[in-house]
Amino acid sequence: MTPGDSTILRFEDVSLHFDGTAALDHVSFQVSPGQTYVVLGAAGSGKTMLLKVAVGLVRPDSGRVWLFDQEITRLREQDLFDMRARVGILFQEGGLFDSLTVAENVAYPLTNQRVLQHAAAANSNGNGAARTVEERVRESLRFVELEQTLDKFPNELSGGMRRRVGIARAVVAEPALLLYDSPTAGLDPITANTIVALILKERDLRNTATIMVTHRYQDGHLMANFRYNPNSGQIERAGGGRDLSQVSTKFLVMNEGRLVFEGTEPELQGSQDSYVRKFLRAGGA
Amino acid sequence: MLGIRAFRNIFRGPHYPDDIFIQMDVIGVGSLFIVSLIGLFSGIVMALQMARALTQYGAQGQVGQIVSITLVRELGPVLTAVLVAGRNASGIASELGSMKVTEQIDAMRALGTDPIQKLVTPRLIALATVLPLLTIISDFIGLTGGYFIASTMLGLTFSEYWTSAWQILEYNDLAQGLLKPLVFAIIIALVGCFYGMRTTGGTQGVGRSTTRAVVTSSVWIFVLTAFITYVWNRIFVT
User: Fold this and answer.
1) Could you tell me the residue range of the domain that residue A93 belongs to?
2) Which of A97, A237, B42, B110 has the fewest other C-beta atoms within 10 Å?
3) Closest partner residue to A93 among B103, B113, B114, by Cβ?
4) Interface probe, candidates A52, A79, A81, chain B, greatest B C-beta count within 10 A
């Protein structure tokens, strides 16, 4: 595929070094609309840096990155702000603004991004725009089942609740691409599964392209094999064979900045790469 | 670079007036008591020291002039700026440093907001507005402290003290006394924001940034007051 074709995100031979150590080492891959990528790797393997480079928070030393078919590697920071309005990000610790309430945090993308401000102004006027923001914030918090926390501050919430508020903020503007940085890190297994279920729900309801970085193979397994059923409102195991959710979910495995595997879950399980085998064994596959 | 971008953002949207007023309240109203207190005692001490020296020459009537010139030209701006640096350069560096290490600044950028526009420019505008005002208040309260000593220990009347204190001041003294806090405000805001936004190394890093912000801005205040006074004298005093 050439860069001109429709892709959500494309990395081409991207490298990034810190103090002589490679954080990303000649990384290439691309994400198409509706596709899910699960990026696996141990701590320090370059997973988080991959997400930061994807939205231009960090510039690579070499290589090129396209976001929504536009090369962002040489874009000015000012121009990147509007591009990022189309991307939702959940940071590892939630990245919530601790001086703002939950409602203000979730409303932040709607009230502070120029692109969305202009869209709101075009669609409504006066109180209409304000009401829309409040409605969308409530809807987004209802999505993560935290509508009752509107007026609380982030430090009044548990770790899992903060991640859920982070998800609400990431999805409130209905972005075309969602990036999740270790959404289950440091959480108990039940809360971790709740978080992954919310990510699944968002992906399957809106068919959003999703990149999830994680060190837990179980998270990727859930993403590849389960889907949200809007009729029952439950997470269900996807059907066998070439089920859509499995085909559209790909795995990347990173080791010391290098991409050591790219493929579907069956291909991952069949991989003979020693690092991938070790990672899968540790993950209980 | 931070300074250029922060100044450029003053004339470029989006603007965050709520943040500017919040910072004016935190910095201006929050510092008012301590700045007034230090202003009062610096005026009292100045008058006490001068009273002793001037009495020897029978020139105690000039105490108002000396307190006035010293406070308006130098002590008022410098002491107020050093206090505000200690209180607010540290506050700015620790607040922004905490935001940096908890990924809030990255989150802000990722959510399409320029952190310099949202965090640095409002603090710069707020400080540049309130520090000259705080200095004027500090100068006046310092002069009042001087009057208290002049009237109780030297027996000067209200009109003797205030007339001499006011008449000795020239327009260029007042201009110098207002230019300095404006320059110091820019230094305090930019140094605090600079160290805050380049914080690394978790909570220890926040502590280091805070200390550096206070030390650096305080040193710059003294260096710049010497420089401005020198240049001012070359231009206006023949």
Assistant:
1) 87-174
2) A237
3) B103
4) A81
The answer to whether B109 contacts A114, with C-beta atoms less than 8 Å apart, is: no
Give the distance from residue A223's alpha carbon to the nearest chain B alpha carbon, in angstroms. 24
Q: Do A115 and B112 touch (CB under 8 A)?
A: yes
Candidates A91, A108, A117; nearest CB to B106: A91
How many structural domains is chain A composed of? 1
DSSP chain A: --TTS--SEEEEEEEEEETTEEEEEEEEEEE-TT-EEEEEE-TTSSHHHHHHHHTTSS--SEEEEEETTEE-TT--HHHHHHHHTTEEEEBTTB---TTS-HHHHHHHHHHH-HHHHHHHHHH--THHHHHHHHHHHHHHHHHTT-GGGTT--GGGS-HHHHHHHHHHHHHTT--SEEEEESTTTT--HHHHHHHHHHHHHHHHHHT-EEEEEES-HHHHHHHHHEEEETTTTEEEEPPSSS-HHHHTEEEEEEETTEEEEEE-HHHHHT---HHHHHHHHHTT-
Q: Does any domain span residue A120?
A: yes
- Is residue A162 one of the residues assigned to a domain? yes
How far off is chain A from B25, nearest CA to CA, in Å? 16
Per the domain annotation, does A31 fall within a domain?
no
Q: How does pLDDT run across B42-69, given as a tens digit for each residue?
A: 999 988 888 888 887 877 778 888 888 8
Q: Which residues of A touch B106 (CB under 8 A)?
A: 52, 57, 91, 95
Domain ranges of chain B: 2-236
Q: How far is A87 from chain B (nearest CA, A)?
A: 8
Is residue A112 domain-resident? yes
Q: Find the CATH number of the domain harbouring A156.
A: 3.40.50.300
Whether the per-residue pLDDT at B123 is higher than 70: the answer is yes
The ipTM estimated for the assembled molecules is 0.78
